[in-house]
Design a protein that fits this description.
Helices cover 43% and strands 11% of the residues. The longest helix has 17 residues. Helix 1 packs parallel to helix 2. It is of the alpha/beta class and 211 residues long.
Length: 211
């Protein structure tokens, strides 16, 4: 389905942004390259750990970090704008890996990097709590305590503008670590803009919607 959608987008040069954890994105390099020729695509690969053991526990069904980095390299080599998201950053569990992840991404050819701190809305909180208890029982209290400290004493803060980064001393430490590491390796803060300049309208009469 994804490839079929991309084929339609490429035919009409419709801008698209892809966010994925999967090396499978490289299957569609031909279509992504066509979109890139018209400045109509950007790809973000999510990478939150280079530690194989931790990565398997965090995302057991997703591509490993080395596969995602290989995806970054393949996309960059094909001229497809590609960056990474260090997400989710879980306080007291994987934030220490931020500098290494950014350095590896730059080496692979990424152009920019962003980050997001873990969010636990609604039922996600209970699922995460159970996972943490089963997987890292010795770290549970510290992780939960840090999450609450950056979410105003709660497990989630839905306010726009703070929900992706959090607030407080621990959130600022993570943010500062990320900013310094990103500047050190030379990754841009923002992805490049995509353009509708080459968009092609479908031929034939415009369909109407009757309500």
């Amino acid at each position: 389905m994804t490839r079929k959608c991309l084929a339609v987008l490429a035919e009409f040069r419709n801008p698209v942004c892809i966010i994925t954890k999967n090396f499978l994105v490289t299957r569609d390099i031909d279509l992504l390259s066509e979109l890139a020729r018209h400045n109509a695509v950007m790809v973000h690969l999510s990478i939150n750990s280079l530690d194989r053991e931790l990565a398997r526990k965090l995302e057991p069904r997703a591509s490993l970090a080395e596969q995602r980095l290989a995806g970054v390299e393949a996309l960059a080599a094909a001229g497809v704008p590609v960056g990474i998201l260090v997400a989710p950053i879980i306080p007291a569990l994987n934030e220490y890996e931020i500098p290494a992840v950014l350095a590896a991404a730059k080496k692979a050819g990424a152009g920019w990097a962003g980050c997001e701190v873990l969010r636990l809305p609604l039922t996600v909180a209970s699922v995460f709590g159970q996972w943490l208890e089963q997987t890292f029982p010795e770290k549970r209290d510290k992780v939960i305590g840090r999450i609450k400290s950056i979410r105003g004493g709660k497990l989630n803060d839905a306010r726009f503008g703070s929900r992706m980064r959090g607030e407080g001393i621990f959130a600022e430490q993570i943010s500062q670590m990320f900013r310094v590491a990103r500047r050190k390796v030379g990754l841009a803060e923002e992805a490049p803009d995509v353009s509708t300049g080459a968009f092609r309208r479908p031929e034939g009469p415009q369909l109407t919607l009757t309500i």
